């Protein structure tokens, strides 16, 4: 697959501005050549003391060409940059839209710093594709051909020299630069991504590194990564400077060649002397348009490498996406039934499945708890229901509709979800409660805070990024309050009260059960207290369902759940002592 296909598609979408920028660039290039050529011709004419009207015409032409060049150059910059920024906007939107469905699987394979470097840095690098890669050759060919045709009217030999210079500038110089660039291909971007990754991890783990005395060691690694990036950037800059220097050398050699050949042709009588300065000025000017060709290979490889990393990011997922987008929608006005039929799920690279032949039927409006030891696959079930992951085998149906046919956005809209780790944004409590589009008054927000046992919290209280200034219990209660503000009829709760004391947990769950009285509720928990309120309890171990039934039925069976409950009572009794 061509890594730049996505860029070509984006350029086609901006074809109007691209065509206008090419037209303006061609006019600017030709106007520049004509401007300096006319200036050279005017200087030569003044030696022969021409009539005044001749100088007036030449002077006026120079002024008009100067204005035309400035206006067209402005138009070129305007349309080319507008096309570039619009293209980047489309790429960011498209990339992020395609990235979202790949979570959370992609987060398990890419370090967050590296992923951030791809989303920001690599997309930003693609701005050079049109301005530095696709655009320059078009303008160079158009301006050079027009200049060669103009020059051939005075001398075919000098026109041939222009063609030779164009070939060297467009092929030889970029080729030499490309040979040297291959040795450091992609190293700058990879080193920058490595540095971003290290910085991100140090910032996230600063407190733990400080406590365990490892901060100095990680700072040294950061310095080494920064030094390595500096070395690679210096090498890349050296290749860039080498290409520009070679182009300048070719420009002056061709100009000296035009001067020497022109002098010979004048002596031979094949060229009028008054045209020599004009041709020399034309050679100096036309090669200015080709300056971008010297650095084209560097930007081309940089763009290709960035596009490759972005494509690799989108292809790195454990989800099997369909070519057609699902069109079904889950109704949020009725309680949802959940059906899992022989569902098996295995993480990529794992030797055993996280879930094995799971079959569950949860009635609409029922209350179900899933219990079991850590690592038994309980949280994976919620991820599958939310279509964050795709089952390896088996089928999941919501309201008798396969999740494959449902748009994930409709599932998320219909579900009130509390995961083990809820994210909180820097802002206020009000900001973190109002994450959806629903309207809520301050009275409603304060009421729900009271229901989750946060009555003393103010809506204007500051929340740090990731809720760093909140305790684990406060985070869970704030996450529950956020879920209780939604109007979905499906509740998916993963350890929502694990950090709360028993008294607070009982009060919070009382309000939650009252609100979800007619809704479908699925709760994952380790604690076994309060499960008497559940219609059904599912016991899991090592990815399989080992028991299921009501609280009374499971206690009567005296099986796995009974033993778990017995151990919990003993632990609570010991704590009470």
From TrEMBL:
Keyword Oxidoreductase attributed: no
**SMART domains linked to this entry:** AAA
Supply the Pfam families for this chain.
ABC_membrane (PF00664), ABC_tran (PF00005)
Q: Where is this region: Disordered?
A: 312-331
Q: Which residues form the ABC transporter domain?
A: 338-567
Q: What processes does the entry annotate via GO biological process terms? A: cell redox homeostasis; glutathione transmembrane transport
Gene Ontology CC, one term: plasma membrane
Q: Where is the composition biased (Polar residues)?
A: 312-326
Name the residues that span the membrane: 18-42, 48-68, 129-150, 156-179, 248-267
Q: Which UniProt keywords apply?
A: ATP-binding, Cell membrane, Membrane, Nucleotide-binding, Transmembrane, Transmembrane helix, Transport
Subcellular locations according to the entry? Cell membrane
Q: Which InterPro entries match?
A: AAA+_ATPase, ABC1_TM_dom, ABC1_TM_sf, ABC_CydC/D, ABC_transporter-like_ATP-bd, P-loop_NTPase, Type_1_exporter
**Topology of the protein relative to the lipid bilayer:** Multi-pass membrane protein
User: Which CDD domains does the entry mention?
Assistant: ABC_6TM_CydC, ABCC_MRP_Like
In alphabetical order, the GO MF annotations are:
ABC-type transporter activity; ATP binding; ATP hydrolysis activity; ATPase-coupled lipid transmembrane transporter activity
> Is-annotated flag, keyword Cell membrane?
yes
* Protein's name in the database: ABC transporter ATP-binding protein
């Amino acid at each position: 697959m061509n890594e730049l296909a996505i860029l070509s598609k984006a350029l086609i979408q901006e074809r109007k501005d691209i065509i206008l920028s090419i037209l303006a660039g061609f006019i600017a290039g030709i106007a520049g050549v004509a401007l300096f050529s006319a200036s050279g011709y005017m200087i030569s004419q003044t030696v022969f003391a021409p009539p005044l009207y001749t100088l007036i015409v030449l002077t006026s032409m120079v002024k008009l060409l100067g204005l035309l060049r400035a206006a067209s150059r402005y138009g070129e910059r305007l349309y080319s940059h507008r096309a570039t920024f619009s293209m980047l906007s489309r790429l960011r939107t498209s990339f992020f839209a395609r990235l979202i469905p790949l979570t959370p699987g992609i987060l398990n394979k890419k370090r967050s710093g590296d992923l951030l470097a791809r989303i920001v840095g690599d997309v930003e690098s693609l701005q050079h594709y049109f301005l530095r890669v696709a655009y320059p050759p078009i303008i160079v060919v158009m301006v050079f051909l027009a200049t060669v045709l103009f020059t051939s009217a005075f001398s075919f030999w000098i026109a041939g020299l222009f063609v030779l210079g164009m070939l060297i500038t467009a092929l030889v110089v970029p080729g030499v630069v490309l040979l040297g660039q291959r040795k450091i291909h992609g190293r700058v971007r990879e080193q920058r991504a490595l540095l971003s990754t290290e910085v991100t991890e140090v910032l996230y783990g600063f407190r733990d590194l400080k406590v365990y005395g490892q901060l100095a060691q990680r700072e040294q690694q950061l310095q080494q990564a920064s030094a390595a990036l500096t070395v690679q950037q210096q090498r890349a800059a050296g290749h860039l400077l080498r290409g520009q220097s070679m182009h300048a050398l070719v420009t002056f050699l061709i100009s000296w060649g035009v001067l020497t050949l022109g002098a010979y042709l004048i002596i031979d009588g094949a060229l009028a002397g008054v045209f020599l300065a004009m041709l020399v000025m034309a050679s100096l000017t036309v090669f200015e348009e080709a300056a971008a060709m010297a650095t084209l290979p560097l930007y081309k490889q940089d763009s290709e490498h960035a596009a490759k990393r972005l494509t690799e990011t989108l292809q790195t997922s454990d989800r099997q996406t369909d070519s057609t987008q699902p069109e079904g929608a889950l109704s949020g006005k009725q309680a949802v039934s959940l059906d899992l039929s022989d569902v098996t799920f295995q993480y990529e690279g794992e030797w055993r499945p996280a879930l094995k032949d799971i079959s569950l039927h949860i009635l609409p409006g029922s209350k179900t708890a899933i219990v079991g030891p850590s690592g038994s696959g309980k949280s994976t079930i919620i991820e599958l229901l939310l279509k964050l992951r795709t089952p390896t085998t088996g089928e999941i149906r919501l309201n008798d509709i396969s999740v494959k046919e449902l748009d994930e956005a409709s599932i998320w809209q219909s579900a009130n979800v509390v995961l083990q780790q809820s994210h909180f944004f820097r802002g206020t409590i009000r900001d973190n409660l109002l994450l959806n589009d629903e309207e809520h008054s301050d009275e409603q927000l304060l009421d729900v805070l009271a229901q989750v046992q946060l009555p003393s919290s103010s809506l204007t209280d500051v929340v740090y990024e990731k809720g760093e200034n909140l305790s684990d219990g406060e985070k869970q209660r704030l996450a529950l309050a956020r879920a209780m503000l939604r109007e979905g009829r499906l509740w998916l709760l993963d350890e929502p009260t694990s950090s709360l004391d028993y008294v607070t947990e009982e009060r919070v769950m009382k309000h939650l059960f009252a609100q979800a009285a007619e809704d479908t509720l699925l709760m994952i928990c380790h604690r076994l207290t309060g499960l008497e309120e559940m219609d059904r309890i599912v016991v899991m171990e090592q990815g399989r369902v080992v028991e299921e039934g009501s609280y009374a039925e499971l206690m009567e069976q005296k099986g796995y759940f009974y033993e778990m409950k017995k151990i919990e009572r003993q632990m609570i009794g010991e704590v009470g002592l």
